[in-house]
């Protein structure tokens, strides 16, 4: 919402009116405007850029070699920080990470249909009477066939 307030202020609409209409407080907007990007976010972006460059050169390695290459490029970080950045951006090793089963298309059938079953209907919306026939019971539901004697 704050970028919208900034754009409207550039167009000549006052910040007070915009914040009142959008039901925002002015103080957090001015605080955000003074520090658009924090130091931590900027350092993380530089580290991620160095890690991505190293990962693009050697995609078969995990996070350790790109972390070493990023350190050589001047971006000092711990291995845990490199792991956090690479895993958050899904920069896995080309060999070590198996992909999930979601989104895959089913493969060929595991075996041929030796019985040669045919599951197509002869006409739409018809039901085979032989498969859906029910046997009738002699009494109400839940009663047994032989009467019980009180004992």
What would your notes on this structure say?
The chain contains seven helices and no strands. The protein has helices spanning 2-10, 15-22, 26-34, 39-57, 64-72, 79-88, 129-132. The chain is flat and about 75 Å long. The model has no long low-confidence stretch (mean pLDDT 77).
List keywords for this structure.
151 residues; 7 helices; flat; mainly alpha
Give me a quick take on this structure.
This protein is 45% helix and 0% strand. Among the domains are: 33 residues; 50 residues.
Radius of gyration: 34 Å
Instruction: Tally the beta strands.
Output: 0
Shape: flat
How many H/I helices?
Answer: 7
**Could you describe the largest sheet, including whether it forms a barrel?**
none
Pairing-aware structural class of the strands and helices? mainly alpha
The helix content is: 40-55%
Distance between the termini: 80 Å
How much of the polypeptide forms β-strand, as a percent range?
A: under 5%
List unreliable stretches of 5+ residues: none
* Helix-strand string: HHHHHHH
Q: Report mean pLDDT, rounded to a whole number.
A: 77
């Amino acid at each position: 919402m704050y970028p919208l307030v900034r754009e409207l202020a550039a167009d000549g609409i006052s910040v007070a009116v915009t914040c009142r209409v959008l039901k925002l407080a002015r103080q957090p907007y001015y605080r955000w405007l003074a520090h658009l990007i924090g130091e931590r976010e900027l350092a993380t972006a530089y580290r991620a850029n160095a890690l991505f460059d190293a990962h693009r050169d050697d995609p078969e390695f995990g996070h350790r070699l790109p972390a070493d290459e990023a350190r050589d490029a001047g971006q000092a970080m711990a291995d845990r920080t490199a792991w956090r950045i690479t895993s958050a951006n899904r920069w896995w090793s080309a060999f070590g990470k198996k992909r999930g089963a979601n989104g895959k298309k089913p493969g060929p059938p595991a075996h041929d249909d030796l019985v040669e079953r045919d599951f197509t209907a002869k006409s739409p919306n018809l039901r085979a009477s032989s498969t859906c026939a029910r046997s009738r019971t002699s009494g109400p539901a839940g009663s047994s066939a032989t009467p019980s004697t009180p004992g």
